[in-house]
Amino acid sequence: MANQFTPQPPEIVSIQKTSFVGQPAAIISGTEDLSGVPSGHSIGVKLENLTVGAWLTYTPVTVNSDGTWNAVVPSTSGDEAIAWAIVMGYTGPNSTSDPSKTFVLP
């Protein structure tokens, strides 16, 4: 049986406070190491609010071909969050990274 590729944890590069439809939000930017991603597959990133135990993104945010990604998510100031990288394109269960370092929403 072949080994399944597991992505590296996402790196958070910047977090900026903003608003979206009049509600508090954050623009989170990051990078993902794409070396070793199997041909025909891509990487997505999901963000989770640890404080309330809820996903900030319902579908994975697409990682660009240069390894960068950006997400606009709801933000409750002071809540802690993490990011996960997910391999997209497998027909079976998708491989998921370890979590990113914990970060605080603005």
- Class computed from helices, strands and strand pairing: mainly beta
User: What's the shape?
Assistant: elongated
The largest sheet, given as strand count, sense and whether it forms a barrel, is: 5 strands, antiparallel
Radius of gyration: 14 Å
Multimerization status: single chain
Protein model, in words:
It is a single chain. This protein is an all-beta fold and 106 residues long. It contains no helices and 8 strands. The chain has strands spanning 11-20, 23-31, 42-49, 54-55, 61-62, 68-74, 80-88, 103-104.
Condensed summary:
This protein is mostly beta strands. 0% of the residues lie in helices and 46% in strands. The model has no long low-confidence stretch (mean pLDDT 92).
Annotate the secondary structure layout:
Blueprint: E1 11-20, E2 23-31, E3 42-49, E4 54-55, E5 61-62, E6 68-74, E7 80-88, E8 103-104
Antiparallel strand pairs: 1-2, 2-6, 3-4, 3-5, 3-7, 7-8
List keywords for this structure.
elongated, 106 residues, mainly beta, 0% helix, three-stranded antiparallel beta sheet, five-stranded antiparallel beta sheet
